[in-house]
Amino acid sequence: MIHLAIKYFIRFGQLDIPSVGQLKLLKKEAELIDGVLKAPSEFIEFELNTGVASKQFYQYLGNALDISADQAAIQYEQSWESKFENDHKVMIGNLGVISKTEGTYTWESHFNTSQFYKDIEVGNLPNSETFETELTAQKNDKWAIWAIALAVIALLAILLKQ
């Protein structure tokens, strides 16, 4: 049951653990700051709460196990209860470990994207100067005047033809 929950987490980026908390996969986009392209990052955040998993999650489990969503919800909650009764640490795939010490839950992440993405120094981008000159050229373009002039010529042609 837990392995299906891990698959759901990888696919949808969120996993609710009954009576414990919630794991979320958060992403931060790359940014250009002072000539350095900061690498994008992904990390897993753990929030303590006693929320209930979504209907979508239970339907996913039910479809994978070929049972109803209600039965999937019951079995899922029981599987987590038995995990924490037997062990004080529960592995969530290769992503990390949830530990229970004296009634509190903690998350230790093994998920590190900094080994895949590095910051890149790009300096001043030559395209930025080209873009600025194109903007000034567009401001100087008198397209509205040309559109009105063509409209007047077209109306005159229509009127003179009649």
Count the helices. How many?
5
The average pLDDT value, as a whole number, equals: 81
Termini, distance in Å?
81 Å
Q: How many extended strands?
A: 9
The major beta sheet can be summarized as:
3 strands, antiparallel
Mass-distribution shape: elongated
Low-confidence stretches: none
Q: Which structural category fits the helices and strands? A: alpha+beta
Q: Give the strand order of the largest sheet, numbering strands 1, 2, ... along the chain.
A: 1-2-5
Q: Rounded to an integer, what's the Rg over CA atoms?
A: 29 Å
Listing every helix as H and every strand as E from the N terminus to the C terminus, the arrangement reads: HEEEEEHHEEEEHH
Number of domains: 2
* Percent of residues in β-strands: 25-35%
The helix content is: 40-55%
Features:
three-stranded antiparallel β-sheet; 162 residues; alpha+beta; 2 domains; 5 helices
Description of the molecule:
- This protein is α+β, with helices and mostly antiparallel strands and about 160 residues long.
- The chain folds into two domains: about 1-120, no CATH class; about 125-160, no CATH class.
- Helices cover about 45% and strands about 25% of the residues.
- It is built from five helices and nine strands; from the N terminus they run αβββββααββββαα.
- It has helices spanning about 1-10, 55-65, 70-85, 125-140, 145-160, and strands spanning about 15, 20-30, 30-35, 35-40, 40-50, 90, 95-100, 105-110, 120.
- The strands form three sheets. A three-stranded antiparallel beta sheet has the order 1-2-5, covered by helices on one side.
- Helix 2 packs across helix 3.
- The chain is elongated and about 90 Å long.
- The termini are far apart.
